[in-house]
Amino acid sequence: MNDSRKPYIAGNWKMNLDRSRALDLIKTIKGRLGDGSDREVAVFSPAVYLADISAVAQGSPLGVGAQNLWYDKEGAFTGELAAHMLREVGADRVLVGHSERRHVFGEKDDWMARKLRAALESDLLPILCVGETLDERKGNRTERVLKRQLETAFLDIRQDEIRRVTVAYEPVWAIGTGEVASPEQVGEAHRFVRRWIANKLGAEAGSAIRILYGGSVNPGNVKTLMAVEDVDGVLVGGASLKPDTFLPIIEFER
Ligand code: PGA
Question: Which CATH architecture has domain 8-250?
Answer without folding.
Answer: Alpha-Beta Barrel (3.20)
